Amino acid sequence: MSEYVVDVGQxxxxxxxxxxxxxxKRGDKIRVINTLSRHNLGVGLPDxxxxxxxxxxxxxxxxxxxxxxxxxxxxxxxxxxEGMSKGMITVGGYAGMSCxxxxxxxxxxxxGDAGPRCGVAMKAxxxxxxxxxxxxxxxxxxSGRIIALGGAGESCADALWAAEVWVAGDVESYGVDVKIKExxxxxxxxxxxxxxxxxxVDSSHNWRKMVSGERLWYFESRDASAWLMI
Amino acid sequence: MCGIxxxxxxxxxxVGRDLVELMDAQEHRxxxxxxxxxxGTPRDTGYxxxxxxxxxxxxxxDVADLVNVxxxxxxxxxxxxxxxTDSAAHFCFRMEIxxxxxxxxxxxxxxxLTDRIEIQSCGRSLEIIKDVGGAIAVADKHGVREMEGxxxxxxxxxxxxxxxxxxxxxxxxxxxxxxVAIVHNGQITDYFTWREKLERRGYxxxxxxxxxxxxxxxxxxxxxxxxxxxxxxxxxxSIDGVFTFMIANTDGIGFAKDRFAMKPLVVIDHGGDLAxxxxxxxxxxxxxxxxxxxxxxxxxLTGIWGVGNRAMAA
Lengths: 230, 314
Hints:
The structure holds two protein chains of two kinds.
Chain A: E1 3-7, H1 13-26, E2 29-33, E3 50-53, E4 66-72, E5 86-91, E6 107-110, E7 126-129, E8 145-148, E9 164-168, E10 178-181, H2 185-195, E11 207-212, H3 224-228
Chain B: E1 3-13, H1 15-24, E2 33-39, E3 47-53, H2 59-72, E4 82-85, E5 91-97, H3 103-110, E6 117-123, E7 126-132, H4 135-142, E8 149-157, E9 172-173, E10 181-188, H5 191-200, H6 212-223, H7 228-238, E11 241-249, E12 252-257, E13 266-270, E14 273-277, H8 280-286, E15 294-295, E16 302-306
Antiparallel strand pairs in B: 1-8, 1-14, 2-7, 2-8, 3-5, 3-6, 4-5, 9-10, 10-11, 11-12, 12-16, 13-14, 13-15
């Protein structure tokens, strides 16, 4: 398998993505250089593709991923891996707002912090953040796990559906309708299974597992004040 | 969706050129209109006026009427007014004037002409250039790239709440305070409530653009004696909606972000040599090399950057 280099610069992003898709078809390993924080790089990548983005990328990098392994050297902008169904995305630095929004499968691994609403409306899959997750992370997440090793910002796990938010470290404040549960040994083992391939298992993690209190699932007028809290 | 940008140089230079780059990179966020607030070297006395008239057919009479109001207030033109017309119906002007006796009273009188001709900035240093069209078109028409100064703001507008009109473009001047300009990305949801309240206090609104409210609201806070830092903090709980807005004056640039952290702000700070924008790829037009990017992603944030290599103050 040879390495193919794609130079982004100020070229039209559609032309860049077409070049990436062609290289994926040939089975080349791809190195994307001169990324200049441009948006929509590597959207809709096929199963089995392998990409490395030098430097930082803009919005929606790796969005709609269907099975590629993607690594971003430094930071990613908004919604890295939005709507991905399969594959692995690694962000070396900071991931902006709405990391993994509405994803339906696969894993996103952020080595730095993540911005607000990490995992918003995610349907399945895992997001692992080594640093802190931002304001209102997990907002309305349907299923899947958000795992943060460096704490969480305000309004954490707000208005969850059936997703879980696991945080080691400080949580600045909890969102509406959060239930904090003591995880069982089996549940911790499940999370450790996700962390193990990333080399992040640490038995000293003081986990807080957040799930929905399920009050917001069924609207009742006497609970209107709870709805207005958001 | 709009795009905003700011730039502070370590020493006076081609701030116009950089702001055009910052806005060209964000043109996809809105190309209905584009505007710039450029802070040149401040003069000790006198003001630069920038503005536009709505019908170039009556340009001479409209400009003469505005000059008469200037003379009524003890000021005069310093040199001939610069007038700019093209195929559009409106015309743009730039004039240098001596100090009116009372700036507030003069602006109030000049504002009685705003059905025909409108002053869009008044500053010892500030000049606001705004027009319909994308960054390159507006920059070419008005020679923005050649404008020098210490700092400035840029704005690309996608009109969502009101009409596309040359005077409804950003930046907005916080009349009648000289040298204060704002740009805004977002929507103000209590616009009509605030507008009614402020109009009862005697403020005039010249457009239907919700972002103009921020400029008028800032004027009201300044009138009450609030500092920029105080006004920025107060805006978060006073103004309802989603916003990241920036205010500039001769000392620097400040910003405020709403309670829900809906609108981004990205900054590269090379020891006081600063570029701020809605999108990281825009600041990379100014600082192309990989550098540490500050993401102001959280809710309810404010800050001020000073001109002249001063660090973050608020």
